[in-house]
Specification:
The protein is built from four helices and 19 strands. The protein is mainly beta and 373 residues long. The strands form five sheets. Strands 2, 4, 5, 6 and 8 form a five-stranded antiparallel beta sheet that branches. Helix 1 (200-214) packs across helix 3.
Length: 373
């Protein structure tokens, strides 16, 4: 029997010779963009942004070069604030996120926006484009952010947050990539960093995750391990930020956290992360939490599928159909509505990924690209 997989709306280049490192913070320009076949990542701090009494930030201008294939804005705020995008205007004047969408919203995400956006507590990311149907535009993008209390109807809050922008540049969309991950262990089932490489269930789960992502030419490159406090073996979703603040991830690594149980006021979750996940340093306030508690005949292959599902969310994928939100389909045209065979179904057990889903994920800055000489 398939297990119900819940995700909360919070959501409930490694260099080759001569390459520019994927996670380097640089604003260097490339003189001859016709040679820019290997994707490069440029990361720039936009400083501290202030939110007024209504929760809306001042307008931010982001200059996107002609060879950009995507950009991601990372917001690092405080644990008592949620964040989302108040408005996003493309260089041609079109509204990719409509101003004031949130005032009458019955969800903590903008389903009807040209570029779908969700919300997250503490650490938030805006990822453009979130769908292969959207064509990237060069020029000045104008952005306003929103800080709020996390409830409906949305009520804005004043405050401050640090903002970065990460621009992936290439002449063509990346056709492959890799992810480096760090698995943080709380001691559940006796798992520690010292014995993780010899743990058959964990290694089988990691292999399953790698096999699933190989469908769209994304590999799991390097896996590292760290320990966190055993007090996190049983976790309530309200303590998500406290756990991920324990991250020991290095630049270029994406964090997983394995706990014994992941609870909410309404029951248990299999995994928890943001959609999409933020990027940049510090790595705190970003990560994927996975419960390893057996549920309904759970196996290591199911654990691997859950890890892969949550990684899909972090890299920008919504559920193929949001059954709890009015049966809304995702913004990717080649996924079948209500498919239980897709990895991003709300049901555990599906393993398929489409090329459209792969295209979106390969644009996320967490996906690195090894470049030839």
């Amino acid at each position: 029997m398939r297990n119900l997989l819940l995700v909360v709306l919070l959501f409930a280049c490694e260099s080759g010779n001569g390459a520019v490192p994927q996670d380097s913070h640089t604003q260097d320009t490339v003189d001859d963009t016709s040679e820019l076949l290997c994707p490069l990542l440029e990361s720039t701090s936009l400083g501290t942004v202030e939110f007024d009494a209504t929760g809306v930030s001042g307008e931010l201008s982001i200059e996107i070069p002609p060879d950009a294939v995507s950009f991601l804005v990372s917001v690092r705020g405080t644990n008592d604030h949620f964040y989302t995008t108040a408005s996003l205007t493309a260089p041609d004047g079109s509204q990719w996120v409509e101003f004031d969408w949130y005032k009458n919203s019955t969800h903590l995400l903008c389903i009807s926006c040209v570029n779908r956006v969700a919300s997250a507590r503490s650490g938030y990311a805006l990822f453009v484009p979130i769908s292969p149907q959207r064509v990237m535009q060069a020029g000045i993008w104008r952005l306003q952010l929103l800080a709020f209390d996390g409830n409906l109807p949305i009520q804005g809050l004043p405050g401050k947050a640090a903002v970065e922008v990460h621009i992936k540049r290439a002449n063509i969309d990346p056709l492959n990539g890799s992810v480096n991950i760090r698995v943080h262990l709380s001691g559940e089932n006796g798992r520690l960093a010292s014995n993780a490489e010899d743990d058959p269930e964990l290694q089988s789960a990691l292999n399953t995750m790698g096999e699933l992502f190989s469908q769209v030419d994304i590999s799991i490159d390097k896996v590292s391990y760290s320990d966190v406090s055993d007090s996190f073996q049983t976790l309530h979703e309200a303590d998500y930020e406290s756990l991920i603040a324990e991250s020991q991830a290095q630049p270029g690594e994406l964090s997983f956290f394995l706990v014994g149980e992941l609870n909410t006021d309404d029951g248990q979750l299999r995994g928890l992360t943001t959609v999409p996940g933020p990027w940049g340093a510090p790595t705190q306030r970003s990560g994927i939490v996975i419960s390893t508690a057996p549920q309904g005949g759970d196996t290591s292959s199911t654990l691997g599928a859950v890890m892969a599902h949550e990684l899909g969310h972090y890299l920008g994928l919504f559920h193929v159909t949001e059954t709890a939100l009015g049966k809304i389909h995702d913004p990717i045209p080649d996924t079948a509505p209500f498919s239980t065979n897709n990895l991003m179904s709300t049901q555990v057990g599906g393993g398929e990924l489409t090329e459209g889903q792969g295209q979106v994920m390969r644009l996320h800055p967490a996906v690195a690209h090894s470049c030839p000489e």
